[in-house]
Amino acid sequence: TARDLSSSMGHFWLEPLSFPGLAVAVALLLLALCLRSWRIRRPGEPPLIKGWLPYFGVALKLQKDPLGYLKFLQKQHGNIFTVLLGGKYVTFILDPFQYPLVMKNHKQLSFDVFSRKLSEKAFSIKKSMKNEDLTHELHVAYQFLQGKSLDTLLENMLQNLKQMFEPQLLKTKNWNTAQMLTFYGSIIFEVTFRTIYGKIPAGDKKRIISELRDDFFKFDDKFSYLISDIPIELLGNVKSLQKKIINSLRSENLAKIQGWSEIVQRRQEILEKYLVQDLEIGAHHFAFLWASVANTIPAMFWAMYYLLQHPEAMEALRDEIDCLLKSTGQKKESGFSLHLTREQLDSLVCLESIIFEVFRLHSYSSVIRFVQEDFTFNSENGDYCLRKGDLIAIFPPMQHSDPEIFEAPEEFRFDRFIEDGKKKTIFSKGGKNQKFSFMPFGLGITKCPGRYVAVVEIKLLLLIFVTYFDLEIIDKKPVGLDYNRLWIGIQHPESDVLFRYKAKS
Ligand code: HEM
């Protein structure tokens, strides 16, 4: 419908044009749209599905029910086919045994063309993305999101949570009502910012962090439009929000913040070494900040949402946490005195299983590659010609929702990732182990480097809320997914959910 169409394009505005001017602009636009859709399948190419809408192709159908529609196309056309989506031709590779072929052909199937375009539009990172040495050094620096550095991040995160919770939240002795996504979003933004970028000096602290957070969420609300072809200038105030956030993360402003994490220190050194332009440095910090919270927030929302809807999961989790606290001699009653190591967090198999089950159900992180040159994809099921300029997509939710790998895949089962009291890591189909059955963080060279931080952070927050608070869901109606962020991580809920909390007495 026209409404769907306008929402899938974004609510943008145009400068008023005179009538003849407008008519010519519309005619040219329609011509351009039709030309983009004018493609005929060449011999050897995968089946081509263009839909009936010029330019948009099957975008609306896919957005309405991505899994249902892709499974329908898979039944009709097999494991490889090309669809027209918002002016782009995307070839889906749905057979997991062919994933390694996509990952290993770096030269023909490039990941950086796609991510460079996104970084330029969404975060205003311009020249520096083309500098291979810089990109390489930034990648090497991701080691500071693992190992010993991760232990330090965990310690600092606990400390920050203590400072954030003690003055206020832990004193909430009467029921307080809040919207769940907004509530956890705000906590995650603040604790992540403090842990990664450090503490804003007292005085202006509250104002600065809440202003940055508000701007960040307003920007993030429009993120799905940033991966479309709509120029950023047509997205209302997104450009000015982007400028404002980048400005607050420039070296000069970051220098006022104390306690940078190792990853930020190292990134800053590398950025200074290669770049002269301070705004470009701010843009890199913005991209990293976005990556560090954008997916953790909806993941935390869903974990809490399912826990509150599934008393059996809550009970199992409470037992597991009680056991750990007892065995480490920690008492719940003595204020916020928790001390946890990464090994202890790691031993909580039920907690991890709950989080992984949320990822399985709601991570739509896709692996996207750009076809750099015409290329023949030699697979076991035949050879396919891929066309220069098209995109290739691997779509993990197809495995996550395969009933032969995960029984009753639509159900939330808190213990799905537990077997004989231990973590279950291998899943099979038809008797064969499936290496690519669970891919919430992408694959290969572009796999998320922050995945350990994300899991530690969600574990810590769930543990704290379950230990120190009484929690109840108020809106009991089931909540569906909003597929606006189809390719980019954990999906948001269709609507926020009312819940209430109070500190345990
Ligand atoms: C549940 C939470 C998270 C999910 C589902 C997630 C998912 C992903 C995915 C799928 C990618 C790859 C995108 C691509 O193929 O281009 C990615 C990239 C990235 N993620 Fe995460 N992520 C999460 C949390 C985090 C956190 C907490 C951090 C940082 C502390 C982080 C830092 C990054 C960075 C820096 C990249 C870009 C890597 C590059 O330069 O290639 N992520 N994430």
From TrEMBL:
InterPro entries named in the record: CYP450_sterol_14alpha_dmase, Cyt_P450, Cyt_P450_CS, Cyt_P450_CYP7A1-type, Cyt_P450_E_grp-IV, Cyt_P450_sf
Binding residues for heme: C448
Pathway: Lipid metabolism; bile acid biosynthesis
UniProt-listed Pfam families: p450
GO biological process: B cell chemotaxis; bile acid biosynthetic process; cholesterol homeostasis; cholesterol metabolic process; epithelial cell proliferation; estrogen receptor signaling pathway; negative regulation of intracellular estrogen receptor signaling pathway; positive regulation of epithelial cell proliferation
EC number: 1.14.14.29
Cofactors: heme
Coiled coil: none
Superkingdom of the source species: Eukaryota
Group of enzyme by EC: oxidoreductase
Primary residence: endoplasmic reticulum
Keywords attached to this entry: Cholesterol metabolism, Endoplasmic reticulum, Heme, Iron, Lipid metabolism, Membrane, Metal-binding, Microsome, Monooxygenase, Oxidoreductase, Steroid metabolism, Sterol metabolism, Transmembrane, Transmembrane helix
Locations listed in the record: Endoplasmic reticulum membrane; Microsome membrane
One GO term describing the cellular component: endoplasmic reticulum membrane
GO molecular function terms listed in the Swiss-Prot or TrEMBL record: 25-hydroxycholesterol 7-alpha-hydroxylase activity; heme binding; iron ion binding; oxysterol 7-alpha-hydroxylase activity
Family listed: Belongs to the cytochrome P450 family.
Name of the protein described by the UniProt record: 25/26-hydroxycholesterol 7alpha-hydroxylase
